[in-house]
């Protein structure tokens, strides 16, 4: 009787950079396709084959090792990141199950990764204490920022509901202190990636923090004439709207939790709000130009031969160009994060 091709039992586990597959076949002989093997499985000596569509791209090199009891396959991810599941399809194949001998959740895998780079023994007291402190610090930072921006958002929304357009003209006086605090705290978002506390890029964080602080401290903070303009309301409202969803998303991620609605808002709300925020910031800069010319604030004195001084407004005009360049860079960065999560690429193992 001619043998038929069967599907073996496959067990999987992952790390940030690798996928581990354990195929339940004894005395397996691997064919050219890696997933086609001849061995002794649940239905005796036969030819077994399986196919998987991974959640995200993997590298073409596949390492496998056959023993008397099983076939071990190791596959490297194209990018080091944690996958929510193994396969592109949400419903896992019937032949696939977790490999509990190798299984780690994301927090344990991150601890293993940290131990690898720091030279500490996995789950040692020092490593566990460090990771605990890091998670606690990041959780508290995001919680404080969430509470701060939530307070600003609620105050502005209530005042808009009660006072209408009149609330536009004293936004700075009612919310500036908390906004100063939150934006000074945001400098930590530039420091954290440099210290290896988070995996986000340093450059996108620096662009956002530096841009906001320029608007807050230089444009609004140093010019009283700007503080009563309606543009302050729109800048603060757009900033706080984005951040009341951004910070709780990161806060829950610190403890390995996810709320699907919050995740959707985190990866989609910025698409209209982030460009609108940059446009509002640009309007604030443009409105401040004649004020800097008139007051000569922050002007750069020139040598006597040249006479006069160089107005700070010229610096701000250059900053306007850089602002929209930063918008392009950060938009690409955020879109890449969103695409990675929602527009997943197919990759078959054959």
UniProtKB/TrEMBL annotation:
Its main location: endoplasmic reticulum. Its EC number is 4.2.1.134. GO terms for biological process: fatty acid elongation; sphingolipid biosynthetic process; very long-chain fatty acid biosynthetic process. The keyword Membrane applies. Keywords: Coiled coil, Endoplasmic reticulum, Fatty acid biosynthesis, Fatty acid metabolism, Lipid biosynthesis, Lipid metabolism, Lyase, Membrane, Transmembrane, Transmembrane helix. InterPro entries: CS_dom (IPR007052), HSP20-like_chaperone (IPR008978), Tyr_Pase-like_PTPLA (IPR007482). This is Very-long-chain (3R)-3-hydroxyacyl-CoA dehydratase. It is an enzyme of class 4 (lyase). It is found in: Endoplasmic reticulum membrane. The chain crosses the membrane at residues 138-158, 232-255, 267-292, 312-331. It comes from the Eukaryota. It catalyses: a very-long-chain (3R)-3-hydroxyacyl-CoA = a very-long-chain (2E)-enoyl-CoA + H2O; (3R)-hydroxyhexadecanoyl-CoA = (2E)-hexadecenoyl-CoA + H2O. Pathway: Lipid metabolism; fatty acid biosynthesis. GO terms for molecular function: very-long-chain (3R)-3-hydroxyacyl-CoA dehydratase activity. GO terms for cellular component: endoplasmic reticulum membrane. Catalyzes the third of the four reactions of the long-chain fatty acids elongation cycle. This endoplasmic reticulum-bound enzymatic process, allows the addition of two carbons to the chain of long- and very long-chain fatty acids/VLCFAs per cycle. This enzyme catalyzes the dehydration of the 3-hydroxyacyl-CoA intermediate into trans-2,3-enoyl-CoA, within each cycle of fatty acid elongation. Thereby, it participates to the production of VLCFAs of different chain lengths that are involved in multiple biological processes as precursors of membrane lipids and lipid mediators. It is a multi-pass membrane protein.
